[in-house]
Amino acid sequence: MKKLKNILVIFLTLTALNSFAQSQELMAEFSLFFEYHKNNDFTSALPHGWNVIHENPEPFVRYKIFTRMEEALFFMHDSIATTDEEKLQIADTTLFLYERAVQFEADKKSYFLARKAFVIENWTDRPTEEAISAYEEALMADPNLDTFYQDRLGILYARLSTDGNGYKLKALDLYSKLSEADPSNPTWISRIENLAEDMDELVEITYKAWQLDKDNMEKAWKFASTAMRNQSFEKAIEGLEFLVQQSPDVINYWNQLATAYQRLENTAKSIEAYKKLIELQPDNAEHYVNLAVMYKNQGQLAASRSFLLRAMSINPSWDYPVYIEGTLYEQAARSCGFEFMDKLVYLLAVQTYRKAAAMGGNFSSTARERVSALANSVPSQEDYFFRKIKSGETIQIEGKCYDWINKSVVVP
């Protein structure tokens, strides 16, 4: 028994010594690799690096063994001295490197998979589907994968797209997500538009994508927003109505829906949508003005003005509600006649336009143009003279056409 124990001790000691020797040998190999790599002598560095990679790269992951090897291989591949045959060999070798890297660097898995896809795409003659699969696997491992690789995937989707493989829909989904994450980048919108021969087809593509996943609100919004950009308002309404049913408190959905109804002259539904927006955002003056414009277009001038006044109380410095108020008086006078009282209503419109112009907002010049346009519609000096009305007098607006106005004008 004692002899057996001695043999076991000797065996363990020899094993430990052997392991230590191997460890020392591996460290020496890495040191040689590191020095050659540091001096950009990649030809000399690679054999030592491969010895480490094949044997046990784990102790050297923290020293970036895989990315240093990658750098050396890329340098060799791109060298003008490398033949086409050698480039193919380097491509295969680099792909093997990535397979080993994924095993030992789990936290950089997506990076190595994306690089694998890039090499397959650009260095080999393998089927493009292999590159697509590798890019997809990388994106699955990290949804925030560098946009360069996501773009490469989208380009391959578009290049291989057919009516049957669904790649166009995948590309659309990919670029839509990129655009939402970085709306200031015009590349993604350009890629989306290039997926279709024209915007009509793009609308159909996004619609089809939504129909295949009918409960997907993200796809519904992509379809609706694309249809709105294409001014396909009737189509957009289907997606927007679905969205407000699913998320009735989202302001943007209601804004777009109200606009679509308005552009299709569906006044009743547009008014309902703007009222919903006021319910959701009671302190937003724009909603009141939009609703006022809808009532104005229906000829409901009193209702229109009531919403304009609410907008003015919320944002007193905004000139647009004041300008619209002026259009109400002008519209009322034009539809009633051209007697003296009608001319006074034109004068009220002019005075309201002047108030809007004096506010110095975006509608200042437009308001001044309306003042000039109505110069011959307001009462003349003769009108005042024959009625014995003097400058500075106040005259109440009245009459069956104007009972809603309840205002007076001061004679100039």
Account of the 3D structure:
The protein contains 20 helices and 2 strands. The chain has a domain at 321-412. A two-stranded antiparallel ribbon has the order 1-2. With 412 residues, the chain is mainly α. It is elongated and about 115 Å long. The protein has helices at residues 2-38, 42-55, 65-78, 84-104, 109-123, 128-141, 147-159, 167-181, 186-194, 199-211, 217-229, 233-246, 251-263, 267-280, 285-297, 301-314, 319-336, 340-358, 364-373, 381-386; strands at residues 394-396, 408-410.
**What profile does the largest beta sheet have?**
2 strands, antiparallel
Content-based structural category = mainly alpha
Widest sheet: strand ordering: 1-2
Give Rg in angstroms. 37 Å
Relative helix content: over 70%
Number of strands: 2
Q: Strand share of the residues?
A: under 5%
Number of helices: 20
Shape: elongated
Mean of the pLDDT scores? 90
Query: What is the succession of H and E elements?
Result: HHHHHHHHHHHHHHHHHHHHEE
Low-pLDDT segments = 1-21
Report how far the terminal alpha carbons are from each other: 127 Å
Question: What are the salient characteristics of this protein?
Answer:
mainly alpha; 412 residues; disordered N terminus
Chain-wise SSE layout:
Elements: H1 2-38, H2 42-55, H3 65-78, H4 84-104, H5 109-123, H6 128-141, H7 147-159, H8 167-181, H9 186-194, H10 199-211, H11 217-229, H12 233-246, H13 251-263, H14 267-280, H15 285-297, H16 301-314, H17 319-336, H18 340-358, H19 364-373, H20 381-386, E1 394-396, E2 408-410
Antiparallel strand pairs: 1-2
